[in-house]
Amino acid sequence: MWVRGPCSRGPRRWSRRSCGWPNADRLVAAGHAGAKRRIVMVKAVLFDLGDTLIDFAPMDTRRAFAEGTDAVHRLLAERGFDPPAPDRFFRRLFRSIRWAYLWAKFRRREFNFVDLVQRELRRHGIHLDDALRLEVGWRLYEPVARHGVVADDVVSTLNHLRNAGLRLGLVSNTFVPGPVMDRQLAAAGLLPLLPVRIYSADVGLRKPDPRIFRLALDRLGVAGAEAVFVGDLVKADILGARKAGMVSVLRQPFHVGRGHRLAGHVIRRIGELPAIVLPRDDARAEASRELAALRV
Asked: What architecture is the 43-54+151-277 domain classified under in CATH?
């Protein structure tokens, strides 16, 4: 039996049609024994960042932000500026970012938190050049970045996918600008493995808007039907990827069961991904036999 593809009609319709996917003879064993999931000849894999490639431990967000504003205050004082009092700076900036975040989620349009920092500092006669602007962004974000952990199988899996010829990339909802996020990726050993990186703070769009996915697809040079997206949020990642025509993979570390009603696949660890996007010899052989039977 074929697992329902994205072009199937109705909640329980099963189809042997390829729904326009090219190279439909590639079949990947998935789920329980006997179930086959038809997917496209995968050319690219795109990932979410937070709690997909990097797991973030629970944290006191307010405290982490207070640490960041203290670090920015020290940096500006070292550079010869007269920054605002740390408590006042923290309160005004925290309030501005909180409201900007809520408004961004409502409008589904992203903001860049360094712009808010720069606006607040200008009130005190402090103007940042580009280099100092990014350093201020990193000092604010670094206490949060310290809570990020990369699982043991992530780097090796991405290397495996890249060596197999797949193009890799990243699409992340974040109000932190790309150059700042790249510092975290570089420290985690992920930066060279993800040559295409789309950060919502840089493009002004937020998932699940399909346009942000298509930006990444265009830079990778693939169609939506030729790409897989891996993320941890159903609304932002899975539904957004489906709107862009991509195969979706939901990462749920504590998932118990055979599947998900919206995601094409469910994994608990990134290390499970090659079994979905890369064919195995036994899967190829079985696919050939089943296709031969269909042509009879």
From this structure: 3-Layer(aba) Sandwich (3.40)
